[in-house]
From TrEMBL:
InterPro entries: DciA-like. Pfam families: DciA (PF05258). This is DUF721 domain-containing protein.
């Protein structure tokens, strides 16, 4: 159990030579070790996971990682065996397991990064869609859609008629307007 009683400030700043190590020195050393470990772990992860993952703690031979949400947690779980074996062989031979926790604040911090990456993905998709073959709606399909529109509610009827009007035109999934 933790010792949560108040302490005098003098004991926190005591000279490490006289008493061993002061509590602040222990905290500072643990923090710097976690920062180094974080850099190593991020280098071992795929590029998509790097901004959404960080080392939270290392205690009792368990490495605790934080991710932004459950979907990234699932993605990170696929990387655990590789990460575990690499860390054991190169840095932490005493590492027994890796625990993953969700920290939504990581998503807030990295929302700009995600927006920029999604914009670049959309640009790539648009460039790729120009190479795709055009799809055509046959006149027979348009007749079926018009027949269906006659028996449909007003809102659906308008949409079906718009779709049927595309008969004979080339349509692309990237250029469709909703």
């Amino acid at each position: 159990m933790r010792d949560s009683r108040p302490k005098l400030l003098d004991t926190l700043f005591e000279d490490s030579v006289t008493v061993g190590k002061s509590p602040l020195q222990n905290i500072q050393q643990h923090t710097s070790a976690l920062l180094k470990l974080n850099r190593v772990v991020l280098c071992l992860l795929p590029a998509q996971l790097q901004p959404l993952c960080r080392v939270a703690n290392y205690r009792k031979q368990i490495l605790v990682l934080e991710v932004g949400n459950a979907s990234w947690m699932t993605r990170l779980r696929y990387e655990i065996p590789t990460l575990l074996s690499t860390l054991r062989s190169e840095i932490l031979p005493s590492l027994s397991s890796i625990d993953i926790r969700i920290n939504p604040s990581l998503m807030v911090k990295n929302s700009n990064h995600l927006q920029n990456s999604s914009k670049s993905l959309i640009k790539e998709t648009n460039n790729d869609s120009q190479d795709l073959p055009k799809r055509h709606l046959t006149h027979e399909s348009a007749k079926i859609l018009m027949g269906l529109a006659e028996r449909s509610p007003e809102k659906l009827k308008k949409k079906l008629e718009q779709l049927a009007a595309l008969a004979g035109e080339g349509t692309s999934t990237a250029k469709r307007k909703r």
